Amino acid sequence: MTDRRHFDSDQSGPVVVLGLTWVEGIAQLRMRHPGEDSQLFELIGSVLRYQATNTTHCVGFGVHVASSYSDCHKSPQPGERTCVSCSVAEANHASGLHHAHTKEPTVQSSTMASHLQQPNNLYLAMFRDGSIKVGTTTSRRHTTRLLEQGAWMARTVATTSDGIEIRKLEDLVTEQLGIPQSVSIKRKLSGLATPSDEKALASKLDEKAAEVQQLLSSGSSLVTASTKLSPNEHIWRFTDTVDSAAAAQLLDGPYIYSAPLNQDHHHVQITGNCGRIALVTKPDSNDHFLLDLGQLFGIELAIGDHKPAEIMVQDALF
């Protein structure tokens, strides 16, 4: 079962924010006191009251996977979030995962080969500014993957029996239809603050899904995939994963919290999130704000009763 603890800044002393992970569909904030093992705290409901320091820590390798994460107590490389060994491990993992379809099977490690021998889905993810991307995921992690990425809507467009075939399809869609495989955090954040019309987003997603399925059924595909999917069963919406109150707050188009989180003093309570973008309230405001938690990853925070900087009160951003 998911640990339902929240982080509360009533305590004092230093703490390091390492990243986010999802356990049973619930976002968890991974944090630790320097020199200790990390702990997971449920993101929504946590309170962060701190002063940012100039001290940084390695966030470790695979921070988003709760079951396989190991704490790293080394110092990060200058200007980076990871030490040399964790950076190499991350690069090797990414190369093995994203370039598996371009390598000979004998080159893969036994762990990676086992991971790739699972049913996979090809999906299109839509974000609130109208950006769209193509992606792949194992069938068992489909919902979790969309939650990690902060998708607003998504459509499954094909399935395959393994991860090698699905990556060939992903590249084909990018090459033939120009659909990218990533969307920047800046676009995700601006989309949540100034969202596009919901019906227009759904219509665009349907249109692109039809284009992809036509491509994969036209004989241009180099692999065999199933595109015979029920339109209704394979539509995913973020708002269906959260309670109505949290959905309503996001639908209102909150302000962007413009003050840098890795500088100065801050005091926020997290009331919702979409990917690593958190919805927060401040003790001196009735408004909701959006902020990118990624600014905090690897930063040591001095927890305590700090007065928030005046610069953070900016209610007229748009």
Please give the structural blueprint.
Elements: E1 13-23, E2 26-32, E3 39-42, E4 47-56, H1 84-98, H2 110-116, E5 120-126, E6 132-138, H3 142-149, E7 153-160, H4 163-177, H5 185-193, H6 198-217, E8 235-237, H7 244-251, E9 255-256, E10 265-274, E11 277-281, E12 288-292, E13 299-303
Parallel strand pairs: 9-12
Antiparallel strand pairs: 1-2, 1-13, 2-3, 4-10, 4-13, 5-6, 5-7, 7-8, 10-11, 11-12
Account of the 3D structure:
The chain has 318 residues and is of the alpha+beta class. It has two domains: 13-52 and 245-312, no CATH class; 100-239, no CATH class. The protein is 26% helix and 26% strand. It has seven helices and 13 strands. The chain has helices spanning 84-98, 110-116, 142-149, 163-177, 185-193, 198-217, 244-251, and strands at 13-23, 26-32, 39-42, 47-56, 120-126, 132-138, 153-160, 235-237, 255-256, 265-274, 277-281, 288-292, 299-303. It has a nine-stranded mixed sheet. Strands 6-5-7-8 form a four-stranded antiparallel sheet, with helices on both faces. A hairpin with a 2-residue loop joins β1 (13-23) and β2 (26-32). α4 crosses α6. The longest helix is centred in the middle third of the chain and has 20 residues, at 198-217. The protein is globular.
| Total of domains | 2
Individual helix count: 7
Portion of residues in beta strands equals 25-35%
Give the uncertain stretches in residue-range form.
311-318
Mean pLDDT: 84
Listing every helix as H and every strand as E from the N terminus to the C terminus, the arrangement reads: EEEEHHEEHEHHHEHEEEEE
Tertiary shape: globular
Helix content: 25-40%
The SS-based structural class is alpha+beta
